[in-house]
Amino acid sequence: MQYLVVIIFIIVYLTSDLSLGYYYLSPFYTHFTYMFQHVGWMHLIFNSLAFIGLYRALSQVEWLLPKIIFFSFIASYTSVYLVPTVGASSMVYVMIGMLFGLIKTRRIKIKNLYVFMFSVGLMLTVSFFKHSSNSWLHVWCLVFGIGYVYFDKYILK
Predict the structure, then answer these.
(1) DSSP secondary structure of 54-97
(2) Distances in Å between the alpha carbon of 89 and those of 104, 107, 109, 151, 156?
(3) Most exposed residue of 88, 108, 137, 156, measured as fewest CB within 10 angstroms of its CB?
(4) Do 30 and 86 contact (CB within 8 A), yes or no?
């Protein structure tokens, strides 16, 4: 499934422009389409690699793709900017949050936890200093991912 999503990323990147991104005056549907469009090849490659790796790590989560799309959609309403926001990093941060939650609730183990935590912290820090990045969207997606795991473990079970 993760490879199909990456193929969709590539097709959308090659066939459309930033009009699929959301901003304060954009139509409702752009809060869904933004996560499939990317600004450039490097943006597309890094998001795709992170998406594939995290999707594999979260293979135990049922209905993973609809959940990450739903939380990315909801989070898009928490941080609306004057310029279009695009990219799958929202889905990546939802998955990072889910992975953090699963690690914390001891439902999954990771060997290099400190390396993982340092990497996520570095990514968030860089996104706050990069003016073209919607860093608050990243934070909210991370929070929604963690919150989902706790909600699933303590409320639904």
Answers:
(1) HHHHTTTSTTHHHHHHHHHHHHTTT---SS-B--THHHHHHHHH
(2) 22, 24, 23, 23, 27
(3) 156
(4) no
Calculated CA dihedral for residues 108, 150, 133, 46, nearest 10 degrees = 20
Whole-model pTM: value is 0.88
Residue 65 structure tokens: 């793709």
Q: Please write the tens of the pLDDT for every residue from 37-91.
A: 999 898 899 899 889 988 988 988 889 999 999 999 999 999 888 888 998 999 9
Q: What does the DSSP 8-state code read for residue 24?
A: T
Q: Among 75-84, 121-130, 134-143, which is the least confidently predicted range?
A: 121-130
Question: Cα 85 vs. chain centroid, distance in angstroms?
Answer: 12
Q: Which is it for the CA torsion 41, 110, 96, 116, positive or negative?
A: negative
